[in-house]
Amino acid sequence: MLKTSIPKNQYEELLQRRAKEFQRYKARTSSVLSRLLFALPNSPLKYPIQGYTVRPLTATLIPGLGIYAGERNSYKVSLSVSKGVLTTETPAEGVTVKGAGEKELILESSSLVILNDLLTKVSYASTVYSINTGDLVTFQFENHTAVFPIAIKQPCLPVLYDMGTDISSQVTITTKTFLRYDKLNILLKSIRQFYRNITVIIADDSLEPEKVTGENIQHYIMPPAQGWFAGRNLAISQVTTKYFVWVDDDFQFTKDTKLEKFMEVMEAIPELDVVGGSVQGGQLSFILEYEEGEEMDGGCLKRKMTNFHPLPGYPQCSLASGVVNFFMARTDSALKVGFDPKLLRVAHSEFFMDGLGSLLVASCPDVHIEHQPKTRLNTDPLYKRFRYPQRDDTMYKLQLHFFKNHLKCVKY
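RESULT FIELD:
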């Protein structure tokens, strides 16, 4: 339970601050389009149930409007919205129009044919600029009422990567190093044994940085001991290829470290954002189960060391929520989620926690990388002091989950 990580004299005030921030978060990420709607049976109204999208501030015809009713002396329909206005063409003789250019539009005619013709010319335009929101239209005829959604969305410009002709124009290798130049040099040598021209980006927050040189190596020096995720952010921010591969600085490429296999899966299934491999023969992948919980309490997150099911078309791979520290990712997808620089030391699952619901992840253990043997450096007191989390670091991480992720409990 994460509340046990919060000092008792701070808990209530922190809870109230979190509640306010959670309301702002919901306001940014939800809309009326999340409201559950049902199409009632045997309605004489014809209207679009889904897929009607307009640009902000742009009048757009509403497709498919109509009524199907028996003979009447007069037919009267109304449409109303809350975030825009409704218009139609100048009515023909025998049709009354009220409210054109307003939030409620009323059409009445003695001719069903003329009325239906005018309904095909009704347009909606939002009145406030927003890049991703929605509205609901209420459509009424006699005692029949229907409600259908309008998605209001500003189209995005595509951001495409020129894939070039070889893997060096498609993939960048990224890593973070700290006080382990002997390990880093072994990693670089192994990369060049199999990928001579691929760019390697190194984020380095060592206390006394050493020079790292070589063709197609970008070595970025950070302020000392900035931490694991800050280094990841720096390295990935400099990637210019469609994909990057993350490796720890004490990994080692072998003949089974086939980045082309990662690429084959990613290119075949464009919905995938991350594909992980295996390290030292171990397939460390997991799923995350999230229950939102009560609004003031927060939710619960459970991590299970398993997978969902095999990846369609690639039975050697499985879908998961997170993977081991050796993975290929779409650069733009990872940048959108980011790596929280508040996490200085041991942190990995947190990236996939922040990406839950936005990152589609698979694990393909047939792509393999080795882990270098442990050396005396791993027991060096200076290295251990920075590398491994103390109790204060663990408590801080739990407090971060409590507020940032609106959680009340985490189970690993």
